[in-house]
């Protein structure tokens, strides 16, 4: 997980970050169904980090994809 944190996290949480090669800035809509308690927790985490829930989820998705790519590359090596 250390490598994942060193990757996408450095791009920052601001809406002005530049997309890495191959990532489009075109928004896509996604509906996520989670418990009300989990939604409250996400709002709290986002508020504490000074960002929107959308920004938080985008950052989390970026990290998850980055970690997946690292694991896939390790399997192929």
Approximate strand percentage: under 5%
Main sheet record = none
Return the average pLDDT rounded to an integer: 80
Question: Secondary-structure element sequence?
Answer: HHH
Task: Kindly report the oligomeric state of this protein.
Answer: single chain
Shape: extended
User: Helical proportion?
Assistant: 40-55%
The total of helices stands at 3
End-to-end distance, in Å?
18 Å
Radius of gyration: 14 Å
Please provide the count of β strands: 0
| Poorly predicted sequence stretches spanning 5 or more consecutive residues | 1-15
Q: In terms of structural class, how would the helical and strand content be classed?
A: mainly alpha
Give an overview of the whole structure.
With 77 residues, the chain is mainly alpha-helical. It has a domain at 34-77. 55% of the residues lie in helices and 0% in strands. It has 3 helices and no strands. The chain has helices at residues 2-6, 36-48, 53-76. The longest helix has 24 residues, at 53-76. The chain is extended, with a radius of gyration of 14 Å. It starts with a helix and ends with a helix. The model is unreliable at 1-15 (pLDDT under 50).
Short description:
With 77 residues, the chain is an all-alpha fold. It has three helices and no strands.
Secondary structure topology:
Elements: H1 2-6, H2 36-48, H3 53-76
Summary tags:
77 residues; mainly alpha; 3 helices; extended; disordered N terminus
